[in-house]
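Hey, I'm writing a tutorial for new members on how sequence and structure tokens pair up, and I'd like a real worked example in the thread rather than a made-up one. If someone can provide the structure for the chain below, I'll link this post from the tutorial.
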Amino acid sequence: MTPDDEHYIGYSITDVGRLLRTVFERRVRAFDLTRSQWLVIARVHRRPGLSQSEVADLLEIEKAPAGRLIERMEAKGWLRRRTDASDRRVNRLYLTADGERLHATIWPVAEATVDDALSDLSAEERRRLSRVMARVKMRLQALAENDPAAPMRRRREVKSGEEHAL
């Protein structure tokens, strides 16, 4: 296959990711929630005490825009920052009660979005797709980790094994 072929797998993978994000963003629009905000909420829910720098790395953005994003989320009452006891330069992030409630509301929407996307697949096809995607992900993580041309920040993120929830 050539890159011009509409069935080129690189295009298909990109298109599937973009369409999943589009459907998810439409479903959560009423919550005044951006995809970046959702990713922060999902990560902090799973790893309370994540630092602002770690959030920037996970979102693949610089620290200043990550700080502004976190400030907006704090203003909405979803997050709170605490200064790290051992390093006062580091801010640790925690969900507030409102943030936890939002996570509990939105997580089923994220799951339903993926379920809807895969609804035409049998249970066996889903299992097979999951196994294949896990292998591809592991291979890409190894490539990114060992690629001297990859930025250090990206290599650290790959080592952490973080997953995206849309």
